[in-house]
Amino acid sequence: MARGEIELSKLTKEFADVTAVDAIDLQVPAGEFFSLLGPSGCGKTTTLRMIAGFEQPTSGQILLDGTDVAYTPPHQRNVNTVFQNYALFPHLNVYDNIAFGLKRAKRPKAEIRERVGKALELVQLSGYDRRKSSQLSGGQQQRVALARALVLNPAVLLLDEPLGALDAKLRKTLQIELKSLQQEVGITFLYVTHDQEEALTMSDRLAVMNGGHIEQVGAPQDVYEDPETLFVADFLGVSNLMAARIVSTATSACKVAVDGYELETRGTELDVTGEAKIVIRPERLELEAHGSPPGQNRVPGMIERVVYVGSTIQVIVRAATGESLQALVQNTGAGIPWEQGTPVQLHLPVDALRVLPSGIGDAPSLKGEEQVEEGAAAS
Amino acid sequence: MTTVAESRPSEGFSTWSRVRGWLRNPWGKPRFLVLITWAYILWSIVPVLIAVQFSFNATRSRTVWDSFSWRWYWGDPVDSVWHDPTLRHALVQSFKLAGADVLIAVPIGVLLALGLARWRGRGSGVSNFIMLFPLVTPEIVMGVSLLLVFSELFTFIHTGTVAQILGHVTFSISFVVVIVRGRLFSIGRQYEEAAADLGASPFVALTRVLLPLLTPAIVASAAVVFAISADDFVISQWLSEGGPTDTVPIRIYSATRAAPLPSVNAIATIMMVSTLLIVTIGFLTWRFFTRGERRAGKAAEDIGGAFNLT
Whose C-alpha in A50, A143, B96, B272 is 20 to 30 A from the C-alpha of A8? Predict the structure, then answer.
């Protein structure tokens, strides 16, 4: 099924005093699980609502399988939505909720019954058809909302933070279910969330949005490992940021100076000179015992605080460069390995260190479009 | 046990300080408020109950109780509500006006509420405000101006039933708009959007989703409109042409100024009971239709929403 391809072109939405979505370009191929990730107010929900047809774009195009639907009313679009609070009709039971769309499409009765039955089976709610939505738990309501949207065989399913109202454990279960459901039905899922873990777990690709712009588009691994802006580095998980001065850059490796220590980092294609930032993920930071042989990318430090998290142990280290860095150590059951005040040696592996121009995350307006095109081209 | 009790310093305080302690106990119920509430309830309901009681009096007195009888409802061959044509006509006229008012004002009010609630942009604020005007305009002013309209401008409408109905509809619509719009705001746009998303045209979304969800507010507003129309004196009086177009309040008013009989109490009791009945039916219908949506504390919020004036 080669349908469900979305292409946004210079899509813009201005409200009275704010530009919620600012000329974004995006391509989502058919059958992909694609997430829009960003903090609240970044424009991700407005983008989704424009694709659904609830908001009219100020300018730009929404191509659905090559046809511009930007000015098609929502009830004539071949997309369906799972709403954040489900919006199940409270005056109808589960069966009538799911059959609502089929009845509007004037399908024959027998077909409606069969398709609703199949949809209920798909979301594992067979036998619940006579219940009212108020008699269902949050997770069950979420499944009914999913069945109600999927029963119409849409080209694209839009999901607006559908797991936001559920508790953490149920959310985890449904994340996995949603992903396998998407693979089963094979249609495009456009998923809006502010939960970075959710986006990383489920998506084939994702776009990180900020202030109405797209900061970066890519596969979860690329976006996490290779953030292109400070904002992305900071929003996706915890990042240790250090101010640095560029000594030399190349696509193979860069050299930076951090308070007298010269470090080597991964190569970059970004054009960075002068003051910059370097980032490293806590789980990539290695701690070595004091007195280990010094070498490349090694900085002395001192343990500032040790926090027992459970599966991991969080260690806050004050590096000799002045920054306080966070490291995550696997909990092997051997107890807490370091004590507060212990001198250690930090190892910042070359391939885990990345140079980022400082300030992009704060002022995305200049670089935003460029990165969109870059991300789209890479896909 | 006794020694322990005696040794406590709080023993032996005056009755006054104990009453004060009972009233001021910060962990107990707000007893002072409860007292005020009950005082108010007694103050407002006792005169009504006495009036109702004397509608069943066996003698012609409205102040000295004799014994229970249905005399003033239908027993008396001349002066009972049933046998006195002026009282009977007044009752019929009141119900006629209230019924017509509900049938006309509720549909118009619902449509106006839908329009006003979904109208964003220039002029919407002003028109929303103007809708509240009839609620704050003194009725006497509205009565006078309506009489002027019918006697000078639209002279083909004579005073009487039609003019009275138009007058009642004019001020009732605001109540419908306010109640229905409150409900519209509390249910939000999400259900309409969901309906549109599932392929329902705006008209289908209105009939299949919005109107069923508005039912409780529509029933509630119908009950309110019936009650205020049956209760209305000023506008009914201004637009009445006398005789059979006098309503129950007008009849009670004029009878009380002449030589009042317990039949006046009887007709007032009938009006009160039927209005209460209508409002109760409205409330029960509202409860029935919203039973699925209500969780703890949600009901109060919804009623609040229904009468939300903003």
Answer: A143
Sheet architecture: strand order including A324-330: A286-289, A343-347, A298-308, A312-319, A324-330
Q: Looking at CA atoms only, how far is residue A205 from chain B in angstroms? A: 25
Q: Which residues of A78-94 are buried (b: 16+ CB within 10 A; e: fewer)?
A: bbbbbbbbbbbbbbbbb
Q: Is A206 helix (H, G, I), strand (E, B) or coil?
A: strand
In this structure, the answer to whether residues B68 and B216 fall within a common structural domain is no
Q: Residue A75: which of B199, B208, B213 has the nearest Cβ?
A: B199
Predicted confidence (pLDDT) per residue in B110-121, tens digit: 999 998 887 776
Q: Supply the pLDDT for residue A144.
A: 93
Written as six digits, the tokens of B152 are: 């000078």
Which chain B residues are within 8 Å of A82, Cβ to Cβ?
Answer: none
> What CATH number belongs to A6-226+366-378?
3.40.50.300
- Based on the fold, state whether residues B164 and B267 are members of the same structural domain: yes
CB contact under 8 A, A75 and B201: yes
- Ranges of chain A whose pLDDT falls below 70: 1-2, 359-379
Q: Can you tell me whether residue A136 is helix, strand or coil?
A: coil
Give every residue of chain B whose pLDDT is below 50, as ranges. Answer: 1-7, 295-310
In chain A, which residues have their Cβ closer than 8 Å to the Cβ of B196?
Answer: 53-54, 73-75
Is A53 near chain B, with CB under 8 Å?
yes
φ, ψ of residue A310 in degrees (nearest 5): 130, -95
Asked if A101's CB is within 8 angstroms of B209's CB, the reply is no
* Pair (B114, B158) in one structural domain: yes
Architecture of domain A230-357: Beta Barrel (2.40)
